[in-house]
Structures are given as structure tokens and as C-alpha cells.
Task: structure prediction
Amino acid sequence: MDNKKSEEKKPDTEALIFEAAKKVFGMKGMAGARMQEIADEAGINKALLHYYFRTKEKLFEAVFTAIFQSFFPKAMSIMVNPEISFRDKIEKFTTVYISLIQENPYIPGFMLHQLSTGGTEKIVNLFRESGIKPDFFFQQVEKEIQKKTISSVNPMHLIVNMISMCIFPFIGKPFLSTFLFQDAEAYDQFLEERKKEVPRFIINSIQKT
Amino acid sequence: MDNKKSEEKKPDTEALIFEAAKKVFGMKGMAGARMQEIADEAGINKALLHYYFRTKEKLFEAVFTAIFQSFFPKAMSIMVNPEISFRDKIEKFTTVYISLIQENPYIPGFMLHQLSTGGTEKIVNLFRESGIKPDFFFQQVEKEIQKKTISSVNPMHLIVNMISMCIFPFIGKPFLSTFLFQDAEAYDQFLEERKKEVPRFIINSIQKT
DNA sequence: GTCTATACGGTGATAGAC
DNA sequence: GTCTATCACCGTATAGAC
Result:
């Protein structure tokens, strides 16, 4: 993998470390991860980790920030885009959200550990920096209610329901894939189905009949 | 707190440790928790932890098992109870589920860490031991579909949706309470509302009109 | 049963050769 | 930039007095 034109994309140790850290931190969490394991995963030496990222904490923060920014703004920008109709919004959001996590399986692990360990400040800051204001979505919901196109729902609950149904299947993967599915393939298919099922479920619930 | 009749309920060091461990493990996870912190929380000495539970891992397992058994069977038994109508089942399940976690705030933290750390075997075993068969619920869904009382839904997605909407608000508490709510009180009220909102949301979605 | 003191291993981090 | 060797610390676990 080293034989490309060395000009254009050297195997870039930093990126190797980054990927390895994603994986290990995502699986074990900040506290459970071991620098040694990350080094092994990256196929390099432990000391090199400290050469690129001075400390474990800095490495974690770097990876966490990157992960967060790689998905959160993308998903949220859909919700606050004035050009997308309300109904499309729900469909797009769920689909994109699920797809994004499928592509970056470490996201839920990161979020979880970060949340349940109480390290909320970083998330809060990243969120603030992203400049996203959920208010617009709430206003759009209210507008739809006034237009009588949907039944009267509390926007808070609606958005929490939406996020819940998108993200939980990933969190609960080991659990679900043990009890509800035969193999990994069945689980993957289940996720694919959800891209249609979840928006349908939501729209069925709130649409005026 | 020691001045009760020493016969009836001595302050029971073991129970103290158990409670402290619940709290610390729930917040920090197995890897992040420190025996010292548990000892402090229990107001006793570090060595005593090892006297009662030989190792950190044994302590964790004991607490995890107790937590699991204190809520899972109770919630699930509702789902497979043939005497409860389908509609009541959804209402009862969501209400009981949310209430149970409200009373034992450490449950989500435990589950999360256990899930995301990959220690699924314990959960699988505990689940097996509980003797619960989710099949009955699935059958009941199919029956309702045949009776045309609900629209054609995939039972898998239905139950995953239900669990998602119940449990995620707890997982995401730090996040939600930062962005959507002013204070802890508002968050608590939100949870109370959900006991009505979630079943309503589900039933609205699947009922035949 | 409960404490203090200590042994022991693991882990993050650094020094220094190449 | 990358490695080997090593340090210093922290955290689990045990020994032993009371």
C-alpha cells in the first residue's frame, strides 16, 4: 500500500492512528481503551502515538471532534433547511441519519461513552460551534399544525422520537442481533428496512386523516 | 443511622457497597469506575470492598445482574401476558418501562457500557435465564393485523420503535437537558409527558382509521 | 468486620538511539 | 519519523494488626 506516487498520498501515519483510535475508542470508550491496542491496530509503535498526539486525552478529543463534525451538522442541516418540505424532512432525516451511522459504525459508541461518562461539555461546545438552531424545525412543526396538515403534536417529543428510533438500533445492536436476528445479514437488512419504516411510522402517526 | 434496633436492620455494609457500586459503575462504566471512589461513596474502606466481593469484576457482575433482573423481567412480562389487550399492552409497557428507569437511574448507564463494550454474553445469559419469549408478542401483533384492528406493521420494527422511544431519552439525558430544556425540572416533566405521548404516538401510527 | 500499610502489575508517557 | 528501553504513577488486590 506504499507504492503509489509518494507525492500524492503517502500512507500517512497520522491517518492510520486516527482510524485505529476511532475503532478502539468507539468499542472500548475513553477509559477502557488502551494506547497499546490502538498502536497495534494501527500497526505502529506506542511511542508514535505520543509523537503525533501528545496524550491519550488529546487523541480522544481529536477523534471525537472529527466524528461529531462528520455527521451531526450533516444530519441537522436537513432539519433546519427551509427549502425542504416538512414531510420530506422527516424522510430525509431518518434516511440520512441511519446511513451516516451505517458508514461510521463508531459514532454511537463515542456518543454513548461521552454521554454516560458525563463529559457533556465537549459535546455542548461542538454543538454550539456548529451554529445549528433547532428552533427552526420547531417553528415548522407549529406551522404545519396550524395548517392542519398534521395533528397536534409536541415538537419536542416528535424530534426525540425521531432521533430515538434512528439511533437506538445501533446502540442495541449486540442485543438485537442476538435475540431478534439470526445473523449479521438479517440485522443489516433490518437497518435497511428502517430507512423506509421509520419515516412511515412517524408520518402515519402525525398526519391528519 | 445506626441507632435502630440492631436486630432488625443493621446498616448492612454489603448493601451500602452495593448501592455505591450501582451509582459509580452506572456513571463511569466498568473501566472508568475506581474502587476507591466506590469505597468513598459507601463511606467505607477500599479493602472492605474486596472483603465482600473478591474482585472488581465480581462486584460489577453482581450489581449488573441485580439491576438487570430488577427491571427487565418486569417490563417484558407485560409484553407476553396473554391477559392484557394489545392496546393496553403498549400503554402499560411504555409507562412501566419509563417509570422503572426513572426509579433506577443507573440502568441505562449499565446497559450502555455493557452493550458498547461488547460484553453481551452476560446479558444474553440473563435474558435466557429470565425465560421470556418475545414470540408471544409477535403473534399477538399478527393476530391484530388479521383482525384488521391495526394496520400492517412489521412487529420487529414496532417493538424496536417502542423500546427506542422509551430508553433513548434517558441515554441522551445530558444532551437533551442541555439543548432542549432549561433545567432538570423541565426534563423530568418531559419524561412524565412521555408516558402519555409515546403510547399515543405509537397507537396513532398503527391503528386502522 | 474493619482498618492501615504494602506488594504487584499494568499503563501513559518520556528519553534517546537510529 | 520510528523504534526500544525505561520511568513514574495509579489502581487492584492482599497481608496483617486490631
Observations:
- The mean pLDDT of chain B is 89.
- Chain B has two domains: 1-54, 65-206.
- Chain B touches chain A through 52 residues (CB under 8 Å).
